[in-house]
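Here is an idea for our session: we take a single protein and study its fold together. Once you have written the record down, we can walk along the chain together.
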Amino acid sequence: MKAWQYDEYGSVDVLKLATDVAIPEINDDQVLLKVVAAALNPVDYKRRHGYFKATDSPLPIVPGYDVAGVVVKVGSEVKGLKEGDEVYGDVNEKALDGPKQFGTLAEYVAVEERLLALKPKNMDFVEAAALPLAIETAYEGLERADFKEGQSILVLNGAGGVGSFVIQLAKHVFGASKVAATSSTTKLELLESLGADIAIDYTKENFEELPDKYDVVYDAIGQVEKAVKVVKEGGSVVSIVSITTSIPPPGFSFVLTSNGSILTKLSPYLESGKVKPILDPKTPFSFENVKEAYTYLESHRAMGKIVIYPMP
């Protein structure tokens, strides 16, 4: 099969398009997917740079976490999926601890059934591929922070992949009383369209100097020292960026554990259109243009998710 892979860590130039990669064998608890679309996330380039090579799978690596595709083969222990099902998910249960050697930037990928969910009926494969890692991270962080109906939240980097879902989930799923979020000037309208009550332009205001305090601060950018200054007593700061640094209380960080049941739980909100993926205007990038997609992702200029489509 065709697949993008690298046999050394480094810049985008280590990525090579291979045409002779073996189609993965499936375990009893896995399905084989024909990949229709795959999305990129910051973890993809961090992995390629070797940031967590001590816990990575052996080289060569076919990268990619997020997938939307069609089941073409099922393992003997698979109960809830069948051939022909249209599914999506994040194929790596632990993002930094032994992610799959053969990921989603390929014609086929083998995935555990528990990491997948049926694709929302109202979404195409490009939209579905943009969801899993980011929306699951947003949801797990809110759960871990024990965020409840009627509480207030500040989202740092609200226009990013995870932040855009934190705003929507806090507002439409968890029932937040007030959602504030930070972004640059050009992205303020996006924050409001997602459901933010207060859009803070970080180029003009320092959020930690404003009078408001919040029950939860969700740090999706890496500003945890400032975040703890605006959290209410008894509240919490959740960070997905500062996983290697110590976080002052009441802050904590976590790394996502991928779980298809989160996607299934959120399906009614996705199918009703209350929660939706934000696709970058340049999306999709073709399979041949994966290097350009990575370069764009690493420029930090994207306004939404970067999806690879069509696949070969």
